[in-house]
Write a structure and sequence with these properties.
The chain has ten helices and seven strands. By secondary structure, it is an alpha/beta fold. Its main location: cytoplasm. Catalyzes the formation of 2'O-methylated cytidine (Cm32) or 2'O-methylated uridine (Um32) at position 32 in tRNA.
Length: 244
């Protein structure tokens, strides 16, 4: 689905912006980059700014017109900071745009189009689009760098995609946060109960002390590493018990 979403840059002046765009794309799982008449490409500055996303640059295609870049797309969204008096549907919020883009990308190619650094897209280029989108920003200073704009829209697209049931997206979590298995938790409870008996902490056989402590640790949801630290602490206490 994400492979059906292409980023189109029109007449980009600074090659570094092409590289930064490639980096923004790769972080959000996008890989198809089309360049309409870039001033300089390939270029060492583009490679440097890609910061490891050189595969996106190497697979980028250069074309001579926006029409050629989007001819097979079922939806073409032009990013513009200026409202145009053109009868095109306009997304005020990027997340609304992203929802529709993802739905269409499930079936066929779609494109997000970005204009020149200084002047953006011309009216004729906007007419090649099916929709417009703006990024809400400070009305007194709403100027975004080209790659920043790409990053924001690419993030919204990735966000809309990963919330789908069929994305199977796995959120990254540190290894320290891995929960213990049921077997490990039971061993900890047994170890704690044994130490409480040996230390004389449990003086009333019918008290619910063990159950209450089990409930406490269940609510705390210690990680596997944290449970291992607690087991080590219990073992250290055991060595100081009489007869040990």
């Amino acid at each position: 689905m994400l492979s059906n979403i292409r980023i189109v840059l029109v007449q980009t002046f600074h090659p570094g912006n092409i590289g930064a765009t490639a980096r923004a794309m790769k972080t959000m799982g996008l890989s198809e980059l089309l360049l309409v008449n870039p001033r300089a490409f390939p270029d060492d500055e583009a490679t440097r700014m890609a910061a490891g996303a050189t595969d996106v640059l190497e697979n980028a295609r250069c074309v001579s017109s926006l029409e050629e870049a989007v001819s097979d797309c079922v939806q073409v969204v032009g990013a513009s900071a200026r409202l145009r008096s053109l009868p095109l549907p306009h997304f005020d919020e990027p997340d609304d745009m992203a929802q529709q883009v993802i739905e269409n990308a499930a079936q066929a190619p779609v494109a997000l189009v970005f204009g020149r650094e200084r002047s953006g897209l011309t009216n004729d280029e906007i007419r090649c689009c099916t929709h417009q989108v703006s990024i809400p920003a400070n009305p007194e200073y709403g100027i975004l760098n080209l790659s920043q704009a790409v990053q924001i829209l690419a993030y919204e697209v990735h966000r809309a995609w990963r919330k789908r049931d069929d994305s199977h997206f796995m959120y990254q979590r540190p290894l320290e946060a891995t929960p213990p298995s049921r077997e490990q938790f039971v061993h900890f409870q047994e170890h704690l109960g044994r130490l409480m008996q040996q230390s004389g902490f449990l003086t009333q056989p019918h008290a619910r002390t063990e159950e209450q402590l089990q409930a406490l640790f269940s609510r705390a949801q210690p990680s596997r590493k944290e449970l291992s630290l607690l087991r080590g602490l219990l073992s250290a206490f055991e060595t100081h018990l009489p007869g040990q």
